[in-house]
Design a protein that fits this description.
GO terms for molecular function: ATP binding. The chain has a domain of 160 residues: P-loop containing nucleotide triphosphate hydrolases (Rossmann fold, 3-Layer(aba) Sandwich). Strands 6-7-8-3-9-10 form a six-stranded mixed β-sheet, with helices on both faces. Strands 2-1-4-5 form a four-stranded antiparallel β-sheet, with helices on one face. It is globular and about 60 Å long. A hairpin with a 2-residue loop joins strand 1 and strand 2. By secondary structure, the chain is an alpha/beta fold. The structure holds adenosine-5'-diphosphate. Adenosine-5'-diphosphate binds next to helix 1.
Length: 247
């Protein structure tokens, strides 16, 4: 596979905060339709790596190629437009709006249209909202105010608000934190559904969940790649065992 076949190629990525390298010469690659999980102890640089990809933090060195585009010089909103969606750990949904309204306002606006065209577009938006609601297990909750949803349902709603913008790469920060066991199982199912035509990068601490979802795992330690491959491979890598159990 040449580098151009990857959906995302991160190469030599580095960022320093006051001389401290939080991410240090980091390289990893994400295939199309891949669930790529980043694990590593606290302070390993996982969040900073995602911040660099979505443009929240500027790299000191290195490149981030998404399809054929270089992201390192782009602004956050341009990166979103290029097809990269990011969900942070705490859901940022509108609590006083319904599930339907939360999804509807997240639908890309496009240019203003009137009359028959507007009617047609509204029908299309409703259809897309229904499709996404089905996917995120909220089809029966469309008219419910978001504040009454469970913690897990709120997380799914936020994922739905990203999905309705049709990103090709979705980045999720600890999506199952605080979820019940059954919600975790459904979230794994959701991730397998949403990689049809897109890839997902997940930061996760829950190793059982990682085993359920990961096609590929990158283990970070002190801003660098310590190990990568399948979960079975990284789990048996002595360097990974040392970092997780050796202290
Ligand atoms: P992780 O997500 O793996 O727990 P982070 O990416 O949050 O790790 O942090 C990596 C390291 O970089 C930590 O030592 C953290 O304190 C440091 N760091 C992260 N962001 C900043 C910042 N804006 N300024 C200074 N140091 C930072």
């Amino acid at each position: 596979m040449t580098n151009n076949d990857f959906l995302l190629s991160v190469e030599g990525l580095t960022v320093s905060f006051d001389g401290f390298k939080a991410v240090d010469d980091l390289s990893f690659y994400v295939d199309p339709e891949e669930i790529h999980v980043i694990i590593g102890p606290n302070g390993a640089g996982k969040t900073t790596a995602l911040d660099l990809i979505c443009g929240k933090t500027r790299a000191t060195a290195g490149s981030i190629r998404f399809r054929s585009r270089e992201l390192t010089e782009m602004k956050e909103h341009q990166i979103v437009h290029a097809g990269v969606g990011r969900k942070f750990q705490n859901p940022s949904i509108y609590e006083d709006l319904t599930v339907f309204e939360n999804l509807e306002i997240s639908y890309p606006k496009g240019r203003s249209v009137f009359g028959a065209l507007a009617f047609k577009r509204d029908a299309k938006v409703r259809e897309r909202v229904a499709e996404i609601a089905e996917m995120i297990f909220l089809a029966d909750h469309l008219s419910e105010r978001a504040e009454y949803l469970s913690h897990g349902q709120k997380q799914w709603l936020e994922i739905g608000m990203l999905l309705i913008q049709d990103p090709e790469l979705l980045m999720l920060d600890e999506p199952v934190a605080g979820m019940s066991v059954s919600e975790r199982v459904k979230t794994a199912e959701l991730l397998h559904r949403i990689i049809q035509g897109r890839s997902v990068i997940v930061i996760e601490h829950d190793m059982k969940f990682v085993e359920d979802i990961a096609h590929k795992v990158t283990v970070l330690h002190q801003g660098r790649v310590l190990s990568e491959g399948t979960m079975a491979h990284v789990k048996s890598d002595p360097r990974v065992v040392e970092v997780y159990l050796g202290h």
